């Protein structure tokens, strides 16, 4: 049984985690929202129980809620930052678009473009790219780091609308923390921040307090998990660690969920294994565009490809640090019915 959870009592916060905050007047309340500047690369504001980059609250969130027009065929790749997003983007794109872009095609978009260029973030410069998003052919694959409760009802669906399909990838908190910390130290300068002196201890303190991009991480995960339990036809919940163990099984599950299951002929011709190979970390890391290219913000594409393994946190955190984070997460999840422990 999932426990009932209440939101904080800030005047600006929703009464329930899944209630819709008053996004229309957010510009007027931003100055009054709690501010966090110690977590590079962006200043964060606490809004509806989550620490969200101020720039997203000022421009992207209001625009998404007022202007974005989802389609019934849209598929959203959702995740907490640094939880397997790049890999899932590639897998979802290659799977959904395989009729027009066969995985063995030498000119496949993923052979010449970074996955983040193939699957755009809805909550990144939305107002500047909304016309480009509108021009994309259906079915579209889009991405978001927003908590479920901050997505528009037109995406999540309500009693009148079925909503879009959402694929969420969850990662063990310690690995998510370490990956985010290393990425920030590497890419922050391109984003106008100096994170060279940002230590893992400082990152841990902020993470345990939920003061990180879209944090608390466990609340972010929990919202999507609860919706996957409530509406498994609309929200597919994946665990990064289980995907690493059997990627082909997860690609089949992904295809079925997106409404494009593999035919017997495709299975016989090895299409599933071809997609997994095309989207493997090693293959993508070796692509010219990912070795030497950069995105519109100036962040080098190679920053998005590190080890891609489970358990690397042990190379960067002490046992005491790990124990502290485990306890914070355990206490926060008590009574929810959810655990980060993989069933694989």
UniProtKB/TrEMBL annotation:
It is an enzyme of class 2 (transferase). InterPro entries: P-loop_NTPase, Sulfotransferase_dom. Pfam families: Sulfotransfer_1. Its EC number is 2.8.2.-. Residues 1-13 have a biased composition (Polar residues). GO terms for molecular function: sulfotransferase activity. Keywords: Transferase. The keyword tRNA processing does not apply. Residues 72-337 form the Sulfotransferase domain. Residues 1-22 are annotated as: Disordered. It comes from the Eukaryota. PANTHER family: SULFOTRANSFERASE SULT. Belongs to the sulfotransferase 1 family. This is Sulfotransferase. It comes from Zea mays.
């Amino acid at each position: 049984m999932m426990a009932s959870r209440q939101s904080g009592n800030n005047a600006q916060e929703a009464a329930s985690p899944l209630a819709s905050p008053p996004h229309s007047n957010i510009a007027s309340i931003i100055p009054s929202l709690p501010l966090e500047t110690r977590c590079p690369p962006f200043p964060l504001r606490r809004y509806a129980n989550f620490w969200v980059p101020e720039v997203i609250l000022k421009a992207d969130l209001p625009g998404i809620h007022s202007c974005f027009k989802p389609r019934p065929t849209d598929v959203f790749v959702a995740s907490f930052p640094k939880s397997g997003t790049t890999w899932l983007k590639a897998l979802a794109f290659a799977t959904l678009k395989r009729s027009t872009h066969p995985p063995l095609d030498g000119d496949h978009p993923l052979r010449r473009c970074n996955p983040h260029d193939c699957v755009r973030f809805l909550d990144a410069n939305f107002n500047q790219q909304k016309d480009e998003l509108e021009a994309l052919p259906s079915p579209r694959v889009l991405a978001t780091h927003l908590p479920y409760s901050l997505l528009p009802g037109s995406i999540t669906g309500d009693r009148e609308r079925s909503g879009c399909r959402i694929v969420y990838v969850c990662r063990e908190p310690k690995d998510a923390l370490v990956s985010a910390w290393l990425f920030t130290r590497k890419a922050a300068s391109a984003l106008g921040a100096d994170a060279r002196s940002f230590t893992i201890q400082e990152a841990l303190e902020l993470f345990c307090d939920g003061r990180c991009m879209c944090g608390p991480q466990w609340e972010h995960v929990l919202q999507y998990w609860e919706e996957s339990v409530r509406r498994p036809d609309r929200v597919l919940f994946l665990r990064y660690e289980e995907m690493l163990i059997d990627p082909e099984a997860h690609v089949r599950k992904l295809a079925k969920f997106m409404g494009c299951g593999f035919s017997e002929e495709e299975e016989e011709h090895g299409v599933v294994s071809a997609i997994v190979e095309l989207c493997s970390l090693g293959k993508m890391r070796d692509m010219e565009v990912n070795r030497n290219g950069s995105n519109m913000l100036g962040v080098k594409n190679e920053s998005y490809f590190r080890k891609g393994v489970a358990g690397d946190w042990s190379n960067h955190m002490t046992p005491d640090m790990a124990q502290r984070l485990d306890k914070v997460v355990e206490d926060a999840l008590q009574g929810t019915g959810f655990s980060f422990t993989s069933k694989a």
